[in-house]
Amino acid sequence: MGGYIARRILLVIPVVIGILLLTFMVRAVIPTDAVTAMYEGQITDQEAEATTALIRAKFHLDRPWYIQFGYYVRDVARGDLGESVRLRRPVSEEIGYRYLNTLWLTLSALAIGIGIGVPAGIIAAARKDTWMDVTAMTVGLLGISMPAFFFGLLLILVFAVWLQIVPVVPRGGAALLLPALTLGLIEAAPISRLARSGMIEMLRRDHIRAARARGMSEAAVIMRHALPGTLLGILTVVGLQFGQLLGGAFIIEVIFGWRGIGELAVKAIQWRDFALTQAIILVSAGSYVAINLAIDILYVWIDPRVDYTRA
């Protein structure tokens, strides 16, 4: 087990180096710099050039690219993600609480998605080809097909405007309700379809037939024998969705004004703040890699049949 984990970590190292290189190259594709974007129309071209020159010297932007990359890797290793020119504060301070907000939104959405998707998939599989199965899969197909922004606006219309259960611009804990519900219902769709297909396959296995022949109830057969066999597939899709959402649910965070990584990313691009943009991409990609590494390790813990000596 220890050797397997060590090998997985070693495989992550080149991926991390690639992420660092790609995030370093972000500044090359930004059409202008944050200083020009901030003071456009407010200062003269000569003043903008002088200010830009000072900032370029401060952040080593006047050095060759490989020297800049060395400084960048060193700073990231020390936890220094740079300083936002627009916000005039360390990027890590701004990203810190935003990342926690996105984490809360992600966990809440996945809790809703798993809580709805897994039972719906189990019921659909247990009642295959009945109206319950057709209804569950039809709703799941709609959930996969419906754009997130449309679903979010629809929930605002229903719960805030028509039913007036929550204010249009909620505050405090209520602010998490609608964005989490939006993402959770959307995430429930692929989870339910995967749970259904995995459960149907498991219910055809010989050990399931043997359990039924011993007189075990259908509920016990599903919960004790069939469900554990579908966990790996469910874990895979939940892990991928977790990594994606942790990188920022951009549209949903903007629609609901949720101050997370996604909403900050949109502002950073508008501000042309390359330090902030770099840091957001780095944190998002790093989170995705870390989640996938955790999933690989969880595979062995959930299913001991996985031969990790050859993995």
Our count of domains comes out at: 2
Q: Sheet bearing the most strands, described?
A: 2 strands, antiparallel
Please, what is the average pLDDT?
81
**The CATH homologous superfamily of the largest domain:** MetI-like
Count of β-strands: 2
Helix/strand structural class: mainly alpha
**Spatial shape:** flat
The CATH topology of the largest domain is given as: MetI-like fold
Give the SSE string: HHHHHEEHHHHHHHHH
Question: Percentage of helical residues?
Answer: over 70%
Distance between the termini: 10 Å
Strand order of the largest sheet: 1-2
Question: Beta-strand percentage?
Answer: under 5%
Summarize the entry for a quick read:
The chain is an all-alpha fold.
What features would you describe in this structure?
The chain has 311 residues and is mostly helical. The chain folds into two domains: 2-92, no CATH class; 96-302, MetI-like fold (Orthogonal Bundle). 76% of the residues lie in helices and 1% in strands. It contains 14 helices and two strands. It has helices at 2-24, 26-29, 34-39, 45-58, 65-77, 91-126, 131-145, 148-162, 177-203, 206-213, 218-246, 250-256, 261-271, 274-302; strands at 83-84, 89-90. It has a two-stranded antiparallel sheet with strand order 1-2. Helix 6 (91-126) runs antiparallel to helix 11 (218-246), helix 9 crosses helix 11 and helix 10 (206-213) packs antiparallel against helix 11 (218-246). The model has no long low-confidence stretch (mean pLDDT 81).
